[in-house]
Amino acid sequence: MKKFILIVCILFLSADIAVAQSFGFGPRVGINASKITKGGKEARAGLNVGVFAGIDFSKLGIEVAAMFSQQGANYKYVYNYEEFDAKMKLNYINIPVVVKYNLIGGLDVFLGPQFSALVSAKTKSEKITVNVKDAFKRGDVGGIVGLDYQFRLGLNIGVNYSFGFLKTVRKSYDISSSFFDKGDLQTMIDRVNGKNGAWQLTFGWRF
Fold it and tell me: What's the CATH number where 82 sits?
């Protein structure tokens, strides 16, 4: 009898979850204001674009996304006793995996880990752009936390902060350029040897 009651309870719970769950997916696009902890005072503006998919169980939900994200930092460096402005452009494929909790209505809070793969790394100064990908780590591991609102028609709007746990630059690297002295180029790279951080505002459509 006890086993029968237990089986009934499990089936009832499973049915309740099946009714409560809601699967959705769609495109997402947004803007970034990114920095590197050792970078300059000004954030680098960029885009993030990709796709997401998620499933909701009443108050809780799980969502995963794949986003191309333009990150990096604006910074300054000194060459021949003169200060110059420069940009470090780091482009990543970010894969956040988050747990969502519904606060009220369509408003959710979420957090979780984020895994990143470096696509390209370039530094730009005085209209000169140099490929410096070999000086940077191929990936990053971090976290993401934020809020989003899901409208009934399908539109969702979110704001979040993502952060890396690892420093961006490799411990050792050998890189050179025909435009910059090797030592000066290394100095420029070392100026941004910190951890990624980015505020992001996103707009998506859930089908």
Answer: 2.40.160.20
